[in-house]
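Dear Dr. H.,

I hope your travels went smoothly. While you were away I took the liberty of generating a structure for the chain from your last submission, since the lab meeting agenda had it listed for discussion. I wanted you to have the full record in hand beforehand rather than looking at slides cold. The sequence, exactly as received, is reproduced here:
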Amino acid sequence: MLSRLVQMILVGAAVLAATSASAQTYDPRYPVCMRLTEWGGGPFIDCSFTSLPQCDASASGRAAQCIVNPYFAYAKRDPSLNAYRRQQRPY
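The corresponding predicted structure, in token form, is as follows:
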């Protein structure tokens, strides 16, 4: 009887642990996401845009907002492409 109860508790815990997992919302391959709010439902996030103007065009007329993807995998930057740096003169 006791072992049957323990088995049921373990099975129940496994089911709860499996259902609480959620998929990753943000796609790290694209720099811009659109947060779309559907009527009667929760927000939906679509990360398939390469620029803010592209996302704005798709979001036009909808209850949507374009945001920068916080998980975008930035490419390594070339140090020679940095902004102009003021050169200090030696004294």
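Two observations you may find useful: The CA atoms of residues 28 and 72 lie 4 Å apart. Confidence is low (pLDDT under 50) at residues 18-22.

With kind regards,
E. W.
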